[in-house]
Amino acid sequence: MLAASSLAGSAQGSAASSSLGSKDPSLPLAGKVVGIDPGHNGRNYADPTFINHLIWNGRERETCDTTGTETDSGYTEARFNFNVASYLAADLRTKGATVVLTRRTNHGVGPCVDRRSQIINRAGADVAIDIHADGGPPGGRGFTVLEPIADGPNDRVIAASRHFGLVLLRRYEKVTGVPTSTYDGSGGISRRDDLAGLNLTTVPKVLIECANMRNAGDAARLVKPGFQRLAARAMAGAIASYLEQAPKSQRARRLD
Ligand SMILES: [Zn+2]
């Protein structure tokens, strides 16, 4: 676990700040590793050949990534995802966690979605979150938590992922006031078998579509730094709550 963690950390250039937080054993998340995947990247549009090449997502081929969506005024999903991830990483480090991010800036291309899963898997994360915002119908609003369906690689983390998903759903709804989606999933939950991030995960993980960027009401909130901090705080609270409740057997198995 340590080797994988430091590998991913150095690849992302975040090892120094990560280890700093985890050395104080009195902090609530000391010794915990949290994976954060801010979906897409700010310059994915600039390299369609790379972004459109096919990767294996655990069930079928899909493209390396997409550009992501944006609001009607042009505020990109990649930027939103990255901002929330940055606030979340800071919150978690303050609590003592080691944080593994799949990208460090919002002006690059990639990595592909399969590689993002590998980075978090190899770090041996205790829990992970993929951060997105949706490009849904303009008349629909709200957030959705996407959960994995068993397909082999993720078999052992289905139950834990669903438990984390429920903790996240409740916390996010309460803290941000964003309602569960009016157009996707059921009661804010959607189980998906078409995403590399969920198909390939070997650590408990969900993906959150934080709101609908194509809806004027949702979009007006999403672009505000205050809302982005609030979303991150909700996620940090859910992660801390989940990790406090995680069964010991889950931890023991991962340390093998
Ligand atoms: Zn997305």
Summarize the structure.
The chain has helices at residues 2-12, 15-22, 48-51, 77-94, 113-122, 158-176, 196-199, 216-222, 225-245, 248-255, and strands spanning 33-38, 54-56, 61-63, 98-101, 127-134, 144-148, 189-192, 205-212.
**Could you give a short account of the major beta sheet?**
6 strands, mixed
Q: What is the 3D form?
A: globular
Task: Indicate the low-confidence ranges by residue numbers.
Answer: 1-21, 251-256
Fraction of helical residues: 40-55%
- Count of folded domains: 1
**Classification by helices and strands:** alpha/beta
The ordered H/E elements are HHEHEEHEHEEHEHEHHH
Number of strands: 8
Rg from alpha-carbon coordinates: 17 Å
Distance between the termini: 9 Å
β-strand percent reads 15-25%
What's the CATH topology label?
Aminopeptidase
Give me the number of helical elements: 10
